[in-house]
């Protein structure tokens, strides 16, 4: 009799799981396996990467840095099945205008992801059957012979095992967002809460209207594209020519500056040896806990970033240093990050201050800065952005790429911290999910440099105005207002947009299936020492945990919304990327659950 696996969601994360399932299934099962994917959006691409969105929206990674196939560097238990990265697929299929260093549209990426899904499906052995149901799962429950998945169409699917691979989740406004939404309703204002930008209805933002925007990250970049080029404006010779349909965008955030641009060069020297200061050995040597991320983990991370940065500086640009790399590396390895010895070592070995890595200054570039007036803010922000774009396109500063590679290595090691060590609940929410995720994104997940050139053009054209750092947004006297303690004056508007994705919050999720899991006690929000992380509680094998602490042997959940957090769906080739390792672990756990003799959570002892 065939084994039945239902996967709820068919986006990139689910596709990565499928690749590992197909690779490892022969090691686990002799029976036929029927895998059913349930998703109203196209398989492979899913919701976020579907083809029917604006072609103006781009990926923020170069094509050569995106692959869905594990290569020889990936350390997994299942067999490897290599395949082409995005730019190689484009060459093979004749997709135009896709070079390795290009930033392709999301519609092009959609084509790659759909192709990947179909390639995996076609490569599956005969006894693995893969089908797709274009529907929405609304409920999952234990049945007399396994799992029952309810669909929005009214159909029921029987399953031996269910995997929830739901990807990005919408959420009902909570906390400040809920208060601002209520305030907007009461005063006839426009408030757009955190959401995926491509799904937003922006028609309420009128031409010439003053609009406050909180956030200058990737969601802001997408928002600006849709409100400018998406409304008929165009760029010409470094200037922006408005269509007249744009609103006036007043943008601010905590840092007050956009994410750093992607680098436009390659390493001058060889790649830095990673991990060195934040790998399994260093992580395992940490106390068992409870740990605080900033106090206990961050010093190791900071040292690893510095290692990647200084390796490229010393090896690629030795004329700007006073020591040989091996001498500096030995001394650097012996001193803690937070120490006068480390500061003195760098000062003696790196003469130019601009060549020294200052993570605090990077994190808060305008800390303790005050501005005389609005013109001073605009000038300072434009100067900052111009300098960033110039640095990210100048090979002389390729040490920044060394730091970037270290950040990627760190991201791949963090699951080990969560699996083997205990962070306090406050530290998980405020420091790991809050500060660290924002800092990583700020340094490593920025847009292509030309997007920042466009932002400069929009600023000069008066379409975008910068509000400064530490901006506070609220509602007063029937309007929205924004102000920065570093800048005199207040900005008023009748519209406020949150340019960010909602934080994980399964208690307020808009997903019907997850809401039902929580309402029936079949799932529970993770709580660590009385602090809710907002995530669906799962164990280290991705099994869903119910309100009684029982781990369901036939129900799994993967993704950022779970307590295992998951890794990004896309991987950089030849980096032993975390998404592949997590997908392999999950696939083998799921296949083990499909073996005969695995019980149901409803069975009595």
TrEMBL record:
Q: Which residues form the FAD-dependent urate hydroxylase HpyO/Asp monooxygenase CreE-like FAD/NAD(P)-binding domain?
A: 6-168
InterPro entries associated with the record: FAD/NAD-bd_sf (IPR036188), HpyO/CreE_NAD-binding (IPR038732), L-asp_N-monooxygenase_NS-form (IPR052189)
Q: Which domain of life is it from?
A: Bacteria
> What Pfam families does this protein map onto?
NAD_binding_9 (PF13454)
The molecule here is called FAD/NAD(P)-binding protein
């Amino acid at each position: 009799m065939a084994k039945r696996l239902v996967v709820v969601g068919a986006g990139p994360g689910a596709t990565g799981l499928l690749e590992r399932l197909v690779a490892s299934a022969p090691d686990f099962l002799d029976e036929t396996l029927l895998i059913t994917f349930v998703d109203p959006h196209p398989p492979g691409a899913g919701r976020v990467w579907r083809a029917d969105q604006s072609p103006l929206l781009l990926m923020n990674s170069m094509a050569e840095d995106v692959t869905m196939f594990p290569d020889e560097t990936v350390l997994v238990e299942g067999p490897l099945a290599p395949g082409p990265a995005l730019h190689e697929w484009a060459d093979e299929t004749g997709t135009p205008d896709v070079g390795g260093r290009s930033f392709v549209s999301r519609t092009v990426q959609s084509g790659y992801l759909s192709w990947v899904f179909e390639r995996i499906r076609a490569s599956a052995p005969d006894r693995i059957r893969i089908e797709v149901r274009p529907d929405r799962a609304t409920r999952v429950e234990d049945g007399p012979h396994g799992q029952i998945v309810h669909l929005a169409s009214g159909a029921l699917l029987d399953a031996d095992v269910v995997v929830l691979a739901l990807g990005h989740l919408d959420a009902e406004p909570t906390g400040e967002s809920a208060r601002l939404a209520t305030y907007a309703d009461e005063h006839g204002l426009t408030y757009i809460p955190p959401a995926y930008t491509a799904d937003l209805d922006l028609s309420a933002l009128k031409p010439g209207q003053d609009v406050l925007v909180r956030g200058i990250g990737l969601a802001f970049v997408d928002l600006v594209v849709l409100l400018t080029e998406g409304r008929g404006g165009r760029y010409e010779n470094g200037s922006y020519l408005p269509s007249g349909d744009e609103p006036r965008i007043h943008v601010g955030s905590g840092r007050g500056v956009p994410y750093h641009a992607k680098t436009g060069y390659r390493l001058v020297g060889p790649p830095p040896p990673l991990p060195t200061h934040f790998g399994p050995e260093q992580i395992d040597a940490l106390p068992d806990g409870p740990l605080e991320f900033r106090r206990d983990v961050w010093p190791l991370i900071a040292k690893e970033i510095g290692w990647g940065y200084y390796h490229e500086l010393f090896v690629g640009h030795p004329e700007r240093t006073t020591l040989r790399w091996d001498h500096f590396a030995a001394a650097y390895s012996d001193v803690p990050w937070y120490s006068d010895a480390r500061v003195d070592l760098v000062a003696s070995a790196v003469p130019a201050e601009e060549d020294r890595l200052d993570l605090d200054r990077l994190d808060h570039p305008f800390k303790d800065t005050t501005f005389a007036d609005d013109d001073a803010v605009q000038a300072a922000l434009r100067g900052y952005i111009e300098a960033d774009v110039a640095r990210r396109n100048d090979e002389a500063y390729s040490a920044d790429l060394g730091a970037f590679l270290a950040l990627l290595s760190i991201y791949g090691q963090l699951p080990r911290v969560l699996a083997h060590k205990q962070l306090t609940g406050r530290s998980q929410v405020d420091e790991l999910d809050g500060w660290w995720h924002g800092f990583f994104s700020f340094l490593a997940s920025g847009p292509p440099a030309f997007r920042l050139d466009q932002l400069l053009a929009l600023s000069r054209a008066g379409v975008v105005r910068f509000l400064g750092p530490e901006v506070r947004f609220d509602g007063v006297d029937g309007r929205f207002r924004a102000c920065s303690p570093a800048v005199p004056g207040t900005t008023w508007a009748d519209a406020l947009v949150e340019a960010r994705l909602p934080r994980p919050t399964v208690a307020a999720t808009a997903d019907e299936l997850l809401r039902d899991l929580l309402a029936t006690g079949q799932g529970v929000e993770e709580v660590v020492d009385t602090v809710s992380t907002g995530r669906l509680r799962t164990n280290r094998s991705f099994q869903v945990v119910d309100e009684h602490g029982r781990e369901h042997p036939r129900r799994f959940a993967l993704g950022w919304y779970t307590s295992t957090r998951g890794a990004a769906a896309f991987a950089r080739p030849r980096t032993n990327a975390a998404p592949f390792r997590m997908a392999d672990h999950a696939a083998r756990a799921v296949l083990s659950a499909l073996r005969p003799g695995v019980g149901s959570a409803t069975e009595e002892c």
